[in-house]
Amino acid sequence: MKIIAIEGIDGSGKSTLLDKLFSEALKLDPEKICLFKTPYGCKSKEIEILLKKKGRELAFYERFSLYHSGNIIPILEAKLNNCQNVVLDRYFLSSFTYSIPANTKFNLVKDLLKIVKPFILKSEFLIYLKVDERIWKRRLRERKNAPNQELEKLTGLDKLIFFKNLMDFLVKNYWSFFSKTPPIILNNNQEDDLVNNLQVIRSLLE
């Protein structure tokens, strides 16, 4: 079974790319490709409920364990269905990134990675979508239907910028914790990029 992880910050175009791929996959043998949006079964609202019950912020290892379980479920499901290729909208790179409290010093990241390394199931391929900040902010604004001045308040933009920078840092320096092969970094700004990126994924499925 081949695991292909599609990663990138909110607004990088992962879901749009996977929706296009899914429409194509419907025409294929269902054993050839399985598509999942992860962390599977681990929604942000469920985490918020846990936070309220505990009356405090979840510790790093608690957050990661939640996301970790969300990643394992689709892999087991794909194995049970004898699926040859699994394409995931978010995987362990996102799980680790969003487990880290905002404003954590990057020099601590390696130590945290060592803690969770035994629990990470590496993908065969890691596709990382890069997007220009102007386009990224526009997408977030459109998603929230928010005027420009309200964007930061509605999206927690400061935290997203931290997560974006952290994810860039991890892909550059510590990709081997998450993938068996070097990351495939793709621009995802325009419609032409989307067409090209779909072709890249198709080539990995062959």
Structural overview:
The chain has a single domain (2-201), classed as P-loop containing nucleotide triphosphate hydrolases (Rossmann fold). α3 runs antiparallel to α4 (92-99) and α4 packs across α8 (157-173). The longest helix is centred in the middle third of the chain and has 21 residues, at 60-80. A 5-stranded parallel β-sheet has the order 2-3-1-4-5, sandwiched between helices. The chain contains 9 helices and 5 strands; from the N terminus they run βαβααβααβαααβα. By secondary structure, the chain is of the alpha/beta class. The model has no long low-confidence stretch (mean pLDDT 82). Helix content is 53%, strand content 13%.
In short:
This protein is of the alpha/beta class and 206 residues long. The protein contains nine helices and five strands. It has one domain (2-201): Rossmann fold.
Instruction: Return Rg in Å.
Output: 17 Å
**Name of the top-level CATH class:** Alpha Beta
Shape: globular
CATH superfamily: P-loop containing nucleotide triphosphate hydrolases
Helix content: 40-55%
The CATH architecture name reads 3-Layer(aba) Sandwich
Derived structural class: alpha/beta
- Secondary-structure element sequence? EHEHHEHHEHHHEH
How would a crystallographer describe the biggest sheet? 5 strands, parallel
The order of strands across the largest sheet is: 2-3-1-4-5
Low-pLDDT windows of residues: none
- What's the N-to-C terminus distance? 13 Å
Percent of residues in beta strands: 5-15%
The number of strands is: 5
Mean pLDDT: 82
How many distinct helices? 9
- Per the CATH scheme, the topology name is Rossmann fold
Count up the domains: 1
